[in-house]
Amino acid sequence: xxxxxxxxxxxxxxxxxxxxxxxxxxxxxxxxxxxxxxxxxxxxxxxxxxxxxxxxxxxxxxxxxxxxxxxxxxxxxxxxxxxxxxxxxxxxxxxxxxxxxxxxxxxxxxxxxxxxxxxxxxxxxxxxxxxxxxxxxxxxxxxxxxxxxxxxxxxxxxxxxxxxxxxxxxxxxxxxxxxxxxxxxxxxxxxxxxxxxxxxxxxxxxxxxxxxxxxxxxxxxxxxxxxxxxxxxxxxxxxxxxxxxxxxxxxxxxxxxxxxxxxxxxxxxxxxxxxxxxxxxxxxxxxxxxxxxxxxxxxxxxxxxxxxxxxxxxxxxxxxxxxxxxxxxxxxxxxxxxxxxxxxxxxxxxxxxxxxxxxxxxxxxxxxxxxxxxxxxxxxxxxxxxxxxxxxxxxxxxxxxxxxxxxxxxxxxxxxxxxxxxxxxx
Length: 426
Ligand code: AMP
Ligand code: GLY
Description:
Layout: E1 2-7, H1 10-19, E2 27-32, H2 35-40, E3 42-43, H3 51-60, E4 65-68, H4 72-75, H5 78-84, H6 94-101, H7 103-113, E5 120-123, H8 126-136, E6 140-144, E7 153-156, H9 159-171, E8 182-186, E9 191-200, E10 204-206, E11 211-212, E12 215-217, E13 221-224, E14 229-232, H10 242-259, E15 265-275, E16 278-285, H11 293-299, H12 304-313, E17 327-334, H13 351-354, E18 360-364, E19 367-370, E20 373-376, E21 380-388, H14 391-402, H15 418-425
Parallel strand pairs: 1-2, 1-4, 2-3
Antiparallel strand pairs: 5-8, 6-7, 6-8, 9-10, 9-15, 11-14, 12-13, 14-17, 15-16, 17-21, 18-21, 19-20
Residues 212, 226-227, 285, 289-290, 292 line the site of glycine.
């Protein structure tokens, strides 16, 4: 089987790295890929949002299965485009991908399906939004409706801050069309968890719960990023709760989407806030998380292409999805300045040294090959991932590996996994 992985992040390197290990996979192409996917197979310079270009590439190169990593191609209809040309494609159709593509749509579906989530209202008119915010008071959360590259959410501590976020989206158009509608919602309090499930339209098989670290600095300080590290399993959501959580936040969505004629196939990712009154959904994603994918796939012992194909074909069974009992932890090494502007083209060294430990895999994100050199090309540069017998061992191995890797100004959080470790101690 020849597989095309779409995307260019750490998640896509982890997908390519895992897919090529299967005896059924003969080649993995990546579009556009990065320095890591170049080491697995071949990179082809087609943008991940260029659906006609990706279709032409898949036809031209005899691709048997397409695996989109990010949400944008799914929202743009890659599944329908590939399938109508007879090329199997993993993931939901554009309608179902709207669960991530439009926060207002996701809220409407959650309400229809009876999924617990923050109370909310949607607005296109700034005056109405301001009046609502003044009525409910702060803290309050303002979200641009559409895809805003992770920058569309403001958790406002004051009414003034929330009104500013509304003006930014609705008056100044900072997010373009993605911010032409805003969702204003109740601020929830609690610890966050990422709960992902493989879905085949009828059956959902949960993965082990993960915890991401969105803020740039230790102790969850500073601006939000795409994610600075992740680990699994996450003690905040122990395995004995998976079936109940799936029945609460995954299965109702699958039933609702099937009822609407768009059965959900692919990965449904619920971003949860574990509140004092139970888990509530902050958002849905329709794909693997990045960096959650890196520790998850490090622990997966089942055959990934077989699982993904079963999701598409409607033949998913829990027996396909098997995990190592070990813990996995990923530390993101970032370029200086991220999530703001940052330099590119800095030489990276020490990866082979870090990977001398068989428990360690360095997944590449913002990298590219420049002759024999590997250089940085993005904000999140590497996802240094380690397995261990328990979270503490995985953490120690991942940080020992980070210490061996160098590029100018490299920085990373030192506290990935600490919330899980403090729960283990209690
Ligand atoms: P989202 O893209 O909707 O997941 O939002 C990004 C981040 O903003 C989440 O991971 C949370 O940390 C925070 N957030 C979103 N919605 C809420 C909420 N209703 N209450 C508190 N924090 C939130
Ligand atoms: N790490 C969060 C996400 O992928 O959305």
